[in-house]
């Protein structure tokens, strides 16, 4: 929970990871390139006071994660969104066992979402059923640019992906988080294209599709799809640290999201350990659309409360203490 | 830079990052440029190792083409550094293997659609810039009137000139009486759609501007010890 100016905010960090990118876990040069790319994101978008040395960035471990999120970071509940990256890391990038063990120790604070990959076919489908039971999955994290052997990516509307989504629907894994990365076969088209989100959102109306980093670098295509598909949501991972480096650009992003979607479909996330939640939450609560940007309405406190936690709480059925909810009348008023 | 290098660098100015709609020379993607009589060697760099390989290939092969087209060049070498597909792309460029020859099974036909998609977006963003400029300059002008604005109504400035270049890239005429708010085929939208089309165009412009800024920043972060602008270095 975060308090400022007499207001209290219930905080859900909807996208965190417990990764291991240390050299001994890197399978090849791509493992190094991947974490170096993340580290450049971190260095480029963080305030100086929040910069981590490279060594610390490679691996945090559970204790550090708990401290950064819950002791220092105001977070009430966080959701693991792991990426496997089995072609880049010996023991995977996201540390499944460690993250799940932490979740079992702190079920009130952590939710574990697992990943799947339709290229594993029937074997993967069977695994998904087992994982759903073991992890009690409410959501899943998909990274469409994952490399696997000769293949360097897949699409949500691939026939096998449909079979996996059907199983998600059957098992009540309702929240599908999607990280659209580059590199998709064939290379003829735009690798960041989000059109496949449109198709699955139409065909699986009971599932929620949370597009991480709100479709960036294709914000415009994402907004257009989300306007038409009520089950498409925006995750603010990667977008929110622009508050620091480029506040006017962030104002445009959040302004566009609130214009094309609505305030119930935008979720806060730090993308830990790319960034830590503390400074992001403090700055977001203080953030306001610059006055001269008259094309956007000012952000309200109610909108900030929804984005920082109430929206994800509703999606994941996470209980919110009564004093941290929005008054019913206010909800009705802003809805 | 000496004369031949300046000449080669100027030629590279015609190579555009299709996604960001800016020359690779302005973006800092030209890492080094060496001319030895008739042979030119260029190294390119990108903001991340995971930039989309099709865009990387497009820029690298366009760079090779513009340098080969210079009358005085005999041997042109273009290499992309520090990319996850550097090896594949550099091999393809050295052999003049073309897009399909470079990527093999991963390529279906060609990259024409990809180029077209981003020419369309560049035009859309340019339309937004001029129309938002008009709205700011004239508080009386309503968004619902934007469909009436013709090319001749635009101020004589860089934003307008940029729009005209984007129209030419799409094969559209630039006559003064033509409407500004049009799609990539030059067709105007129904008048009642003008405010919606402006909003959509704005999200495209924000996307392109934001990506360009982020890419520049990441490039600086990735190569902190190398000059961003090769023009300012001495050979």
From TrEMBL, chain A:
Residue ranges occupied by any Amidohydrolase-related domain in the UniProt entry: 12-318
MF GO annotations: hydrolase activity
Pfam family for this entry, one: Amidohydro_2
PANTHER family: BLR3681 PROTEIN
Name of the protein in its database record: Amidohydrolase-related domain-containing protein
Lineage: Bacteria, Bacillati, Actinomycetota, Actinomycetes, Pseudonocardiales
Automatic annotation (TrEMBL), chain B:
InterPro entries: FSCA_dom_sf, MIP18-like
Domain (MIP18 family-like) ranges: 5-79
Coiled coil stretches, renumbered: none
Highest taxon, organism lineage: Bacteria
Listed name of the protein: Metal-sulfur cluster biosynthetic enzyme
Naturally occurring in which organism (per UniProt): Halosaccharopolyspora lacisalsi
Organismal lineage: Bacteria, Bacillati, Actinomycetota, Actinomycetes, Pseudonocardiales
